[in-house]
Amino acid sequence: MAPALCEEMRKAQIAIMLLLLAFSVFGFGYVEGLYLKFAPQRAKIVERTPFFVLALQHLAIALVPTALALAVALLTGCALHLAANDELKSLFISASSLGETFPSVAIIALSVPLLGYGNLPCMLALFIYALLPVLRNTITGLSQVQKGVTEAAKGMGMNDLQRLLKIELPLAAPIIAAGLKVALIINISAATLGASVGAGGLGVTIISGIRTYDTLLVIKGTLPVLLMALIADALLAPVSRKLD
Amino acid sequence: MISIKDLYKSYDGNEVLHGVSLDVAPGELMVLIGPSGCGKSTLLKCINRMVNFDSGTIHVGGRDVRQYREEVLRRGIGYCIQEVGLFPHMSVYENIATVPRLLKWPEPKIRERAAELTGIGGLPAGYLTKYPRQLSGGEAQRVGVLRALASDPPVLLMDEPFGAVDPLNREKLQKEFLRIQTELKKTVIFVTHDVDEAILLADRITLMDKGKVVAIDKPVGLEALLDDGFVGGFLGLEYPLRLLKRYEVGELELCDVDEGALDKDAGAVQISPETTLKDLLSMMIRSDKDYIQVRKPDGRYCRMGLEDIKWLLHYAKR
Amino acid sequence: MRKAGIRDKVGLILMSAASFMPLASLKASRLDRGSPFFLWDLPPEGLLIIGSLLALILLSGVAYARFGRDIGRYLSPRILWSLMPAALIAAVSAAGAGSTAPEGARLGLGAGFWLLCAASLILTGRDGVPNSALLAAGASLALCAYLGLMDDLSIYRELVSRRTVFLSEVANHMKLAVLSAFAATVPGVLLGYWCHVSPKARRWVMGFINLMQVIPTLSLLGLIMLPLSYLSRQLPVLADLGIRGIGFAPAFIALGLYCLLPVTANTLAGFSGVDRKALFSADAMGMTGRQKLIRIQAPLAFPVIFSGIRTALSQNIGNATIAGLVGGGGMGTLIFLGLSQAAPDLVLLGALPVILMALLLDGFLGYLEKRVRMAVLHTDD
């Protein structure tokens, strides 16, 4: 398929998903109303927080730590690259792959004694969880830049910083974006777990759905999460696709 | 042994083989040569039905290949490709044993055969326990040939088997293969695009272009066709020179000269049985005289001029 | 002294930073946040224990520098570092014994303690943590427990008071994680092979499985619960088998579904990654389709498939925690109970073993994966 057409289709896809997201956040009441006509015995759940607020909370809980993690990972990765210490790099890489073995629920639960209940422990856990893949990909992406390219840049008289900013970072961008994509999708979905430690977000709806055996409520909470993850995937796809 | 009649094959409307007919006698080494895309590889693959042809017939050993079940046909034909395709998870022994096992040979017989093959191929016996990853390119290629020979098939198909090996090793492999072939006398169809390789190995050469056979002849015979535009273009006008490489002095009788009759100032070059006529010609071009003096492997001397080399070539061609 | 690598420097820096963090806190009751105390608040006996271990490490380091080899096989500085957690616990418990706290008071371990432990584990090895160090750390901790040095630790008390529950939940957790991963293996491999054979199937199957991976674990559980409870109401046989909307069954199904992606994707990758030349040769040598599958494709794809099963199992250990929310058992039961009771030690008691299990299982499977790769492909590295 022609790349231009492909690009148009991607944009259309994103637009459709955004519309669906808006409907799933604001318009789900219609579906519920329809459902009530067939099953009037359904218990009415009193929403303490309006649903769209929960959705916004969810976005914040997922995005803020990811953005922070991206910034920290980029800075650390670049610093490590400039330091050009292979031992330190491999230590960071092995530490982050070790960290990724830690289950996210365990990390969220363990941040509670440290930070108490609420959004904070969840965000800390998601921060750590996003930091690891992005940092690892930044380090490997920067060190995988072809030697000939960096040599040529050096030969043209670029200093370390210029080389990093103009040559190496742009070339490593697809790998970094791939790490970011993984982190973002994991976080959007893992943010639902925050509800178990008193954080807001769509997990609240899902958990109350589970507690009351209300599948519709579970679906109501799940749909926006799913759409957010898919939108994130589609948004970051072109950057990370340059990999192949 | 192999008889191909009027073979047609097309891929998506592109005709790759356009009425090819070819006969290969038992024990003959037939080289298929031609520019890339001429259909030589496809023709080879038609023989063991890796490619299914549209029309025409192929007989191997007097029987139509379409009468066989594909697998049975292939087990009876040795096949060897440029990329070797050794199975990475099997040792050299297991690789060699693949077809014999498919043919349900008893294991002791396979072991015996493998030992015999390593002898033929000049591999140390310890190599049987090695794995493809531990072999060099040349060694892997050698194992590939041995694997094709494993079940002692009468027919061997080779698709640029030495194409990926570096030039030095390639020549060694070619000579070795020639030695094996004179010993085993298989019926071989050998695809290559390397004219030198064709000259060195072939009993006969089939020159192909655009899915058709242009010429079938002995390497020497093709010399006569050089005036044809395509043949001359592909084989090159230096073809007669290249041809000289085929003849080693070991196969020819060089006349002797008494030591006393030699020109003492010119000196003499030591030659070995493997020295080719082309080498002799090169030596002559290098020396400033219009003749050279050589010391033959048997210790005697010979003095040759350009006329002598030409005469030797005529003699060889007969 | 051996040349200090960057790893040792990081360990030492971490250790000195951790020394200024609260080592532990003295809590009047289970739910009390407690008053923190630091390294320098330790009584003389505690300082003596830690000091003597440090002296021993220094001594063995000096001896190494002097004689060029370790004075005993287990007296190398690296192994000695692994005794640090036990020494810290002994020191902390000495502090507890010396305090004038009321009966029933307990010691909660603080950030300083955990970081010091992590730092000393870093110092035990050059690349990874050596097995001998893990063994030494485990043995010394067991000895601490045996000597009663842990009795005052709140997490230990929590463990003792819930011993039976704890053990059965650990077993449940493993059972849930391992069984569901294995249950997903067969369909996963079949799906992966199907995807390999048919590009059309690949688009749909991989798309579906990828989508499934994006669904939050919680939602998947919730979505499975209702149909399942409906089914068990309709088919009493299922209910007799213990398959209900809550409990083991929905968790098992959800975890199994999550395992499909790594297994299927890796099976597909494994089969597509099989050397094309080898396949061509196999055809040319006259192998039938089945012979090719059994002798060439399956063995060559197996290491990649195995690595998919490893991923599935590792992630399952973590995901199995969620089962606690639907009464599926496992460590999640303890964690969520702890969260609802605001009892940090109970959370710790649930979460630490999960992490430990995940690390151990991943390490073990990583080792197995390496062996498999070596057995099949005979790589020297």
Structure, described:
The complex is a heterotrimer of chains A (244), B (318) and C (381). By secondary structure, chain A is mostly helical. Chain A is built from 10 helices and no strands. Chain A has helices spanning 3-26, 28-38, 51-83, 86-101, 104-115, 119-143, 147-155, 160-190, 203-211, 215-241. The longest helix of chain A has 33 residues, at 51-83. Chain A is flat, with a radius of gyration of 21 Å. The two termini of chain A are 16 Å apart. The model of chain A has no long low-confidence stretch (mean pLDDT 83). Chain B is an alpha/beta fold and 318 residues long. Helix content of chain B is 35%, strand content 23%. In chain B, the strands form 3 sheets. Chain B has a 6-stranded mixed sheet with strand order 6-7-8-3-9-10, with helices on both faces. In chain B, strands 2-1-4-5 form a 4-stranded antiparallel sheet, with helices on one face. Chain B starts with a strand and ends with a helix. By secondary structure, chain C is mainly alpha-helical. In chain C, 73% of the residues lie in helices and 3% in strands. A 3-stranded antiparallel sheet of chain C has the order 2-1-3. The longest helix of chain C is centred in the middle third of the chain and has 35 residues, at 163-197. In chain C, 45% of the residues are buried. Classes of the chains: A mainly alpha (244), B alpha/beta (318), C mainly alpha (381). The interface between A and C is large, with 42 and 48 residues.
Summarize the main sheet of chain B: 6 strands, mixed
Strand content of chain B: 15-25%
Number of helices of chain B: 12
Query: Could you tell me the radius of gyration of chain A in angstroms?
Result: 21 Å
Structure summary, number of beta strands of chain B: 13
- State which percent range the strand residues of chain A make up: under 5%
- End-to-end Cα distance of chain B, whole Å, is 25 Å
Strand order of the largest sheet of chain B: 6-7-8-3-9-10
| Poorly predicted residue ranges of chain B | none
Structural class category of chain A: mainly alpha
Tell me, rounded to a whole number, the average pLDDT of chain A: 83
| Oligomer designation | heterotrimer
